[in-house]
Design goal:
The complex is a heterodimer of chains A (117) and B (113). Chain A is globular, with a radius of gyration of 13 Å. Chain A contains no helices and 11 strands. In chain A, the strands form 2 sheets. In chain A, strands 2, 4, 5, 6, 9, 10 and 11 form a 7-stranded mixed β-sheet that branches. In chain A, strands 1-3-8-7 form a 4-stranded antiparallel β-sheet, with no helix packed on it. In chain A, a hairpin with a 5-residue loop joins strand 5 and strand 6. With 117 residues, chain A is mainly β. Chain B contains no helices and 11 strands. In chain B, a hairpin with a 6-residue loop joins strand 4 and strand 5 (45-51). Classes of the chains: A mainly beta (117), B mainly beta (113). Chains A and B meet through strand 9 and strand 10 of A and strand 5 of B.
Chain lengths: 117, 113
């Protein structure tokens, strides 16, 4: 149980285009999902917290107009990188909090490798 | 400042040997600490969860310890296997209405035959 999927796993796009990444909790309901970015040889950096039915909360330094987050249901959150540039190339990972888990466990997706040319 | 520091940064060991990874944190207020294994190009997978009152917890060949007084944790891997090669990340969760997470920089472990 507690599986989180991401789609796509890899995406290559041209500079200036927008890319949408999906994060789904497959077998549990997630009232909260988190989006992280990880650069090579660095740890995960929290970008934003996504709550179902409300606006996402962004971390300091993360542009909300560039990284659009939608949490439309208890099992789906999307991250859209708008007008992507090469510096946005990174590994994007989502996690979902199982509201039924007593430890507020976060389960991570497998990640999406974004390369902007 | 809430920080999680891990050591060593990287480690190479022979297959079958044991190793111990360290994690020091200054996160407050403390809720729980977790060790994750992250294979290259994959998302982290939880190995152990430790709350304030727990000192030791095992998950197969993985044994985690927690000293809440000194704010230190360790992850001991017994009889290492080639598949243990990965990054191991120490993550500390803060308590409160808005649960914040602080990630360590990870220890990259390579197990060689």
């Amino acid at each position: 149980g507690a599986v989180v999927s991401q789609h796509p796993s890899r995406v290559i796009c041209k500079s200036g285009t927008s890319v949408k990444i999906e994060c789904r909790s497959l077998d549990f309901q997630a009232t909260t999902m988190f989006w992280y970015r990880q650069f090579p040889k660095q740890s995960l950096m929290l970008m934003a917290t996504s709550n179902e039915g409300s606006k996402a909360t962004y971390e300091q330094g993360v542009e909300k107009d560039k990284f659009l987050i939608n949490h439309a249901s208890l099992t789906l959150s999307t991250l859209t990188v708008t007008s992507a540039h090469p510096e946005d190339s990174s590994f994007y990972i989502c996690s979902a909090r199982d509201r039924g888990n007593p430890f507020n466990e976060q389960f991570f997706g497998p990640g999406t490798r974004l390369t902007v040319l | 400042k809430n920080q999680v520091e891990q050591s060593p940064q990287s480690l190479i060991i022979l297959e079958g040997k044991n190793c111990t990874l360290q994690c020091n944190y200054t996160v407050s207020p403390f809720s729980n600490l977790r060790w994750y294994k992250q294979d290259t190009g994959r998302g982290p997978v939880s190995l152990t969860i430790m709350t304030f009152s727990e000192n030791t917890k095992s998950n197969g060949r993985y044994t985690a310890t927690l000293d809440a007084d000194t704010k230190q944790s360790s992850l001991h891997i017994t009889a290492s296997q080639l598949s243990d090669s990965a990054s191991y990340i120490c993550v500390v969760f803060r308590s409160g209405g808005y649960q914040k997470v602080t990630f360590g920089t990870g220890t990259k472990l390579q197990v060689i035959p």
